Amino acid sequence: MFDPYSQCATRRGLPKEKMSENGIMSRAKVLTIDTMNPTVKKVEYAVRGPIVQRAVELERELSEGMKKPFAEVIKANIGDAHAMGQQPITFFRQVLALCSYPELLSDSTFPEDAKSRACRILQSCGGNSMGAYSASQGIDSVRQDVARYIERRDGGVACDPDNIYLTTGASDGIVTMLKLLVCGEGTTRTGVMIPIPQYPLYSAALAELGAVQIDYFLNEEKCWSLDITELQRAVNEARQYCNPRALCIINPGNPTGQVQSRQCIEDVIRFAAKERLFLMADEVYQDNVYAEGCQFHSFKKVLFEMGPEYAETVELASFHSTSKCYMGECGFRGGYMEIINMDDEVKDQLTKLLSVRLCPPVPGQALMDLVVNPPQPGEPSYGSFIKERTATLSALAEKAKLTEQVLNTVQGISCNPVQGAMYSFPRITIPEKAVKEATEKGQQPDMFYCMKMLEETGICLVPGSGFGQKDGTYHFRMTILPPTDKLKILLNKVKEFHQRFTQQYS
Amino acid sequence: MFDPYSQCATRRGLPKEKMSENGIMSRAKVLTIDTMNPTVKKVEYAVRGPIVQRAVELERELSEGMKKPFAEVIKANIGDAHAMGQQPITFFRQVLALCSYPELLSDSTFPEDAKSRACRILQSCGGNSMGAYSASQGIDSVRQDVARYIERRDGGVACDPDNIYLTTGASDGIVTMLKLLVCGEGTTRTGVMIPIPQYPLYSAALAELGAVQIDYFLNEEKCWSLDITELQRAVNEARQYCNPRALCIINPGNPTGQVQSRQCIEDVIRFAAKERLFLMADEVYQDNVYAEGCQFHSFKKVLFEMGPEYAETVELASFHSTSKCYMGECGFRGGYMEIINMDDEVKDQLTKLLSVRLCPPVPGQALMDLVVNPPQPGEPSYGSFIKERTATLSALAEKAKLTEQVLNTVQGISCNPVQGAMYSFPRITIPEKAVKEATEKGQQPDMFYCMKMLEETGICLVPGSGFGQKDGTYHFRMTILPPTDKLKILLNKVKEFHQRFTQQYS
C-alpha cells in the first residue's frame, strides 16, 4: 500500500479520507497556519500575488491546448526587461563569460577591454575565481569602482568606498537597513514613512519586521509629486502611536513614475533633519528618466550641496541595482547601497549582520562593477556599448510617451506622464455595479478588474490596491517594457477591455 | 571650510572637537548602538568574526611592506575551496559561460553536451536570458532536475519537484525555514534544538529571530556522535522555559566532521516524531565523506524507508548547496531545499514570503542544475568531469587523514577522525596561565590562543568558542582545504606554535 518510490506519496499528503481511516496518520503537523510566524502571515506582495499565479496557470492551460480568448499571456506586472525581449548589453555578458570560464581570455574574438575588465575582477576574487566567497561587504575593487561612479554621477561630490556595501539586488539592502532600524514596543515601536502608492517590498518588509508603516500620500493631481505638508501631517499623526525613525523615498517613483525636482529633494532633506528621520533613498531607476525638463538628482549630491549642517548630520542610505535602468539584469541579483553619516558602531553591527549570509552573489557583484565602470571613450567596446544603451533608453522614452498618450484616449482612464522608471500607474473609473460585484466576492474592485482583464485578454497587470491608493480611487500598474509593436497591441487591448468592462457594468 | 568634494567629509564624520565647537553639528544620530534593533546586536558569527578582521588587516600590512614573522596569511577559517586554489569543474564553467554569452553557442571549441545543457537552462529563462527574474521558487526545469537527482541519490525514493525550493546558498533556506517556525512569547516562545558544536549560522539566525536556542551536545569521546539520550535531556529541560518545535542536524557535521550512521538517523527521526519536532537536515556536505565504513544517508531516504507512520507525518526540510562537496562554488550562492510533509497552507505562505525577494540568483540556479545533472556516461564531457571530481574528492580524503594524523602527534592536541565535511575540530589543552591571561583580557581562552597563532604564524583559524563547546574544553576549527603541500606546512606550523605556546605558559 505505502510505496516510497511512488510520486504520489510526497504529493500534498494522502487524501483526507485515507488519513482519518489510518490511526497513525492522525499526528498533527508541527507547523500549521495557526502555529507559524504571525508576522510572516501579514506579509503581502502584490507584484507576485494571486493575479500572477493565475497568469502562470493560464500559461500552462494554453500550453496544454486549452482554448482561451487570447493566444498568449503578456506579463506586464513586473519590471523584468529581458523577459520582455530586451537584449543584454554585449560587453557585460562578454566579461561575465570571461570571468566564468577564464580559458576564454586567450580567445581572440573577445575585445581587449572585456578581457582587461575580466582580469581586474578575477584578480580581486579569492583564487582568481568567482566561485570564492567575497568579503561580506563586497569585493574591494568593485566597491572602489562604485565610489568613483558615484563621484562622477554627483559632479565630484566625494564618495568613500568604505561606505559602499554590495547587496543581493536592492531589495536585500533595503530590508537590511530596515532591520537595523526596528526597535521598541507599543507606542515606541519604530515607524517608517513610505509613499503611497509604494513598491510593496516596503510594506512586506515592515510587516515581517513588525515595524509600523506610516503612509504619506503622493499627490496624483500634481503628477504624483511629493508634498512636504503631507509628510508633516503623516509624521505628526504617527507620533501619537509610534516612533517615526525613517523616511523612504522612491525616486524615480515606482509605481508612479514621477521624477523629483532638486527643490523637492532639498525640502525632504530639511524635513528629515528637522524631524530626525533616517533617510532611505531608493534610486534604482536613476537612469530611467524620460520626460523633458526632468533630471535625476541623487539625494547624496543634494545633501552634500546643502552644506555641513546637513551633509555632516543627516543619515542617508541610497540603493541601486543591476536590475533596472538600461541593463535590466534582474536575474543576477546585483546591487549596492551607499551609507552616509552612519554611526560607526552601527556600521560594525551592519558588517557583522551581513557576514552571517557570507556574501552577495559574486556574478552579481561583477555585473554591478561593469554597470558602474562601463567601456570608456577610446576603448574598443565603447561604440557598441553606447549604441546599445542609447537604443534601450530611447525606446523606453518612446514607450513611456506612447503609454501615456494611448491610455489618456480612453474614457475612464487617466494617466499621469511617465516621467521616469518603467511603469504607468493610471487611474481607472470602475462602475458602481462592478464595485458592488467585487465587494460581494470579497475582492478589491481593481483586483476584480485586473483579474477579469487577465481572463479575457491574457494581459497580466497589478491592481493599484497592491501598492496602496487613496480610498475610493482605483489604479493598475503596467510596465512599459514590451517591445513597441507589442506594447501598441497591448494598449489597444487594455482600451477595448476597459470600454467593454465599463459598458458591461453601466 | 566644508568641502563636499573632499574624501574627508564622508570619512567617519569630523573629529569630536570640531563637532562640539559647531552648534549645528550637535544633532544626535537617529540610529545608534543604543537605538538599533536589539536582536541584531545579539547576533554573533565567528567564522567571519574579529579574528578574520585581524587577518585581513595583517594581509594589508604585509602588502604595505610591514615586517611580520610570516610571509603570508593562510585563511583556514572558512570552507572556501576556490580561494584555497581548488579549480572549478571545467564543464560547469563552460556551461555558465555559454549561458552568460549565448553567442558562444556557435563556438566549435565548446563540447556539445555543454551547449545542450546551456540551451536547456536558457530555454527555461524568461526571454532566454539569465538576466530575467525566475519564479520565486526557482526555475521549473532546475527543480525537476533536482528532484531526479534526489531520486537517484536515494535509490529511487520519489521526489516531487513541487517540494523543491531553490535558494541563495543553503544559509538562505535555513534562515527562511527558521523564520516560518518562530512564534509565541515567554515560555511558549519557539525553541530550536541545535548541535553543540554547531555552525554559527544557526545561533546567529535564532538570535536575530528572537527564538530560543536549545543546545544538545555531540559526544566528542565517541567521535562527535549524536546521542538520543542527550537529545531527550535537552528537550526535557527546554520544555520548562520554551516550546521546542524544531531539531537541526548537520550531517556530515560542521565543524565536527562526523558522519551519522543509518541507525542514528532512524533514531533521530523517531525522536522527532515522538517529541513533535520539525526536522531540519543540513546536508550540504553530502559528497564529502572520506572515512572507510562511513556512508552518507539522507534523512529523506531513511524517513521514507521507515514506512508510512513516519514517511507521511514527519515534517522535514533538507538543505543542499553549490558551495561545498567537490565543486566548492561558494561565490555563486546556489542551493536548494526539499520540504516533506509541510502543511499546504504553510507552503503557500513560504512561497509568498520568498516572492518578496523576487528570486534566487539565476547563475546560482544554473550551477545548481549542473551539480544535480552533471555529464552522463557517453557524453563528451563525462571523462573529464569524473576525472576532476575524483581528483578533488581523493585529495580531500587524503588531507582529512593527514590532518588527523599530524595533529594527533602533538602533545596537548587531540583530533577525532575527519570522517566527512571539510574541517578538523581538534581539542586543545590550554595551560592555566594562558587561561588566566585570556580571562584578564576579557577574551575566551581559545580566542586568545587563535589570535596569538595568527599574529605569530599568519594562520587564521576559528576558536571553538565560536561554535560552542563543553565548558572548560577548548578547540579550534581548521579547514582541510589548502593544497596538500601547503597543508603540511600549515600543520607543522600549528604544531610548532602549540608547543611554543604550551612552553611559554607552563
Automatic annotation (TrEMBL), chains A, B:
Pfam families: Aminotran_1_2. The keyword Transferase applies. Residues 128-493 form the Aminotransferase class I/classII large domain. CDD domains: AAT_like (cd00609). SUPFAM superfamilies: PLP-dependent transferases. Its cofactor is pyridoxal 5'-phosphate. Keywords: Aminotransferase, Pyridoxal phosphate, Transferase. The keyword Cell membrane does not apply. Its EC number is 2.6.1.2. It catalyses: L-alanine + 2-oxoglutarate = pyruvate + L-glutamate. One of its GO terms (molecular function) is pyridoxal phosphate binding. Pathway: Amino-acid degradation; L-alanine degradation via transaminase pathway; pyruvate from L-alanine: step 1/1. InterPro entries: ALAT1/2-like, Aminotransferase_I/II_large, PyrdxlP-dep_Trfase, PyrdxlP-dep_Trfase_major, PyrdxlP-dep_Trfase_small. Homodimer. PANTHER family: ALANINE AMINOTRANSFERASE (PTHR11751), ALANINE AMINOTRANSFERASE 1 (PTHR11751:SF308). Belongs to the class-I pyridoxal-phosphate-dependent aminotransferase family. Alanine aminotransferase subfamily. This is alanine transaminase.
